[in-house]
């Protein structure tokens, strides 16, 4: 069974400072990796994803994440955060169990990013 | 507009009174799923469905039922709700092969 660990439950950071939100996963098969963002009182929105190819993926609002297979990590980074980035961020992993034909998307417990003016 | 629609958004009910939370998607996705979100626990999968008439348990299925009679709809049924099912519920859909999941706006359920 796959699992996702987000090492920090809360991350406070000053505006315009860099930030890294950490995510590690465990899975015995090839995986697809996602970061979702949840703004207050809203549903989850996809921020970025890794399916295959380049291990560095970027979002349209300046976030990036790097897939590291040897360390089973998919950390999220942004070089300069804004107040509007205050939200909860979820790392998620899915794999295709081709033998059973099942498909599950497993989430970490989330990291609350608070940007301080 | 591509979307996942859940109803109701807010619901307060009493212990033991059956309820249904509806979920509908307009993207012709094969995969649909229900999650509950609790503070400090993240999102936990309740049930998922790979296609019409194909459903399977997630991590926390106890006390819930689902059905998938049509591709677009995936209702969540609580036959006898209890206070420990007070939570924020999300429905999601995706194309079958591990693409991104689209989420509804959530249903905040309180069982008293």
Structure, explained:
The complex is a heterodimer of chains A (117) and B (112). In chain A, 0% of the residues lie in helices and 56% in strands. Chain A has no helices and twelve strands. Chain B is mainly beta and 112 residues long. Chain B has strands spanning 4-7, 10-13, 19-25, 31-38, 42-51, 54-57, 65-66, 76-78, 87-94, 102-103, 107-111. Chain B has no helices and eleven strands. In chain B, strands 2, 4, 5, 6, 9, 10 and 11 form a seven-stranded mixed β-sheet that branches. The A-B interface holds A 6, 9, 32, 34, 36, 42-46, 49, 51, 90, 92, 94-96, 101-110 and B 31, 33, 35, 40-45, 48, 50, 56, 58, 90, 92, 94, 96-106.
Short structural summary:
The complex is a heterodimer of chains A (117) and B (112). Chain A is mainly β and 117 residues long. Chain A has no helices and 12 strands.
Topology readout:
The complex is a heterodimer of chains A (117) and B (112).
Chain A: E1 3-5, E2 10-14, E3 19-21, E4 24-26, E5 31-38, E6 44-50, E7 56-58, E8 64-68, E9 73-78, E10 87-97, E11 102-107, E12 111-116
Parallel strand pairs in A: 2-12
Antiparallel strand pairs in A: 1-4, 3-9, 5-6, 5-10, 7-8, 8-9, 10-11, 10-12
Chain B: E1 4-7, E2 10-13, E3 19-25, E4 31-38, E5 42-51, E6 54-57, E7 65-66, E8 76-78, E9 87-94, E10 102-103, E11 107-111
Parallel strand pairs in B: 2-11
Antiparallel strand pairs in B: 1-3, 3-8, 4-5, 4-9, 5-6, 7-8, 9-10, 9-11
